[in-house]
Design brief:
The protein is mostly helical. It has a domain of about 55 residues. Helix content is about 30%, strand content about 0%.
Amino acid sequence: MYAAEWVTNAKNKPVTCSELRPSPTKNRLNEVKYSFDVTKCDKIFDFLLKSQLLRLPKGQVIPPADELKKHPYCKWHDSHSHNTNDCNVFRRQIQSAIEEG
């Protein structure tokens, strides 16, 4: 469940948002510094789940390992759009947990 939802533009007019324009001085990917190896996010997720520090939503089942090797899959999002190791949201969650102690 999402907190907000998209509403269709009844007039079908193009919408412009200046905040979406790229900033020439900022590169978001370079701004974030992690104190852990981001290539280990998949293993970190498994550890946190096994340690009961994470809980899967009802009905979510992580595919078997042999299936995970064939296609991208994010355990955090239950999505085939990217791998857990590449998940920026999960990386930030881990970093926040580290910083909060």
